[in-house]
Amino acid sequence: SLVSQIQNPTFPIVNFNTAYGLSTNNNFFYVHSSKNFSSSIAKYVGRHGLKAGLDYRRISAVGKDLDGGNGQLAFTFNGTFTGNELADLLTGYPYSGDGYLANK
């Protein structure tokens, strides 16, 4: 089936005619990491002071951007079957559906 061939399945796009739809709109899988190190020293002699410090930060993101390469499923509900869009969604009767599997 189409669903079993999608590499990294995500939440499908759900559209309504009279309400806001649902979608994740993300085709990327990244792990963000941050490494931080900071140090400081202060020396006071009488009324004079000297301060020095170091702040090191390394921020990275490792992953892959599929750019739609994982495929996509979309469903539209308009109330054709029950008279109510939300009822069509809950009963599982979409007005239309679309799906593709990118061949990258």
Number of strands: 5
First-last Cα distance: 18 Å
> What's the helix count?
2
Structural class computed from helices and strand pairing: mainly beta
Share in β-strands: over 45%
Q: What is the 3D form?
A: elongated
Helix content range: 10-25%
Count of discrete structural domains: 1
Strand order of the largest sheet: 1-4-5
Mean pLDDT comes to 79
Biggest beta sheet summary: 3 strands, mixed
Question: Helix and strand string, N-terminal first?
Answer: HEEEEHE
Rounded to an integer, what's the Rg over CA atoms? 26 Å
| Low-pLDDT segments, ≥5 res | none
Explain this structure to me?
The protein is mostly beta strands. The chain has one domain. Helix content is about 10%, strand content about 50%. It contains two helices and five strands. It has helices at about 1-5, 85-90, and strands at about 15, 30-45, 50-65, 70-75, 95-100. It has a three-stranded mixed sheet with strand order 1-4-5. A two-stranded antiparallel sheet has the order 2-3. A hairpin with a 2-residue loop joins strand 2 (about 30-45) and strand 3. The two termini are about 20 Å apart. About 5% of the residues are buried.
Pick out its properties.
104 residues, mainly beta, 3-stranded mixed β-sheet, two-stranded antiparallel sheet
